[in-house]
Write a structure and sequence with these properties.
Blueprint (H helix, E strand, L loop, with lengths): L2 H12 L5 H16 L3 H24 L5 E2 L2 E10 L7 E9 L3 E9 L3 H10 L1 H6 L2 E6 L2 E6 L4 E6 L3 E6 L5 H10 L2 H6 L2
Antiparallel strand pairs: 1-2, 2-3, 3-4, 4-8, 5-6, 6-7, 7-8
Helix pairs in contact: 1-3, 2-3
Length: about 190
């Protein structure tokens, strides 16, 4: 059996308890399709299982984006699998203040994106070359790109928090960033 497929099957099986019926059924279908010489069908079944697992994990992460931050009202939660971008899940929520101010808060979990953010955080001079300024968000050092209106920081070497508010002031972006429940993120396994 192809080593990558076997590792995916084992990995998915280990998490099968999250939503046993859908995940286990998809894994079983993938294995059956693979053994029948249908690699495309096997791949599709594994992708379905991964999607279910990502959605489940995204639900826990979504709780870190509260219903309201100060006077910022909240939009609906959106979860997206990052399977095509190397893995992980992104959970996003839009916050609005009045009719004109809008900020998108996103949390990427278990994503290669975290490595890029950590590179900037560990080498502030590199971030500075790209126009980033270090900022504090509670106990976390963040990189703020004022021109783009983006602030990003890492939590527990597992989560990348990204706050985007183009054409908004730094204070607005920091207010929303500080409203993210980073204690909840630190507690997620």
């Amino acid at each position: 059996m192809n080593k990558r497929l076997w590792m995916a099957v084992i990995g998915l099986a280990a998490f099968g308890a999250l939503r046993a019926d859908e995940v286990e059924d998809s894994i079983a279908a993938a294995l059956k399709a693979y053994q029948s010489g249908k690699p495309a069908e096997a791949s599709n079944a594994l992708q379905k299982a991964l999607k279910v697992l990502s959605e489940k994990g995204g639900g826990a992460v979504a709780a870190a984006l509260p219903e309201m931050i100060g006077e910022w009202k909240v939009g609906k939660i959106e979860t997206q699998s990052l399977g095509n971008a190397g893995g992980g899940t992104t959970v996003s929520r839009t916050y609005r203040k009045g009719d004109e101010k809008k900020i998108l808060a996103s949390i990427a979990a278990d994503s290669p994106l975290l490595g890029q953010i950590n590179t900037f955080l560990k080498a502030p001079a590199l971030g500075k070359l790209l126009g980033a300024k270090p900022r504090q968000v509670g106990p976390f050092t963040a990189m703020y790109f004022s021109k783009e209106g983006i602030l990003q920081f890492a939590v527990s070497e597992r989560f990348a928090v990204i706050i985007q508010g183009k054409k908004l002031g730094e204070d607005d972006i920091l207010e929303v960033a500080q409203g993210v429940n980073t204690e909840l993120l630190k507690g997620l396994k």
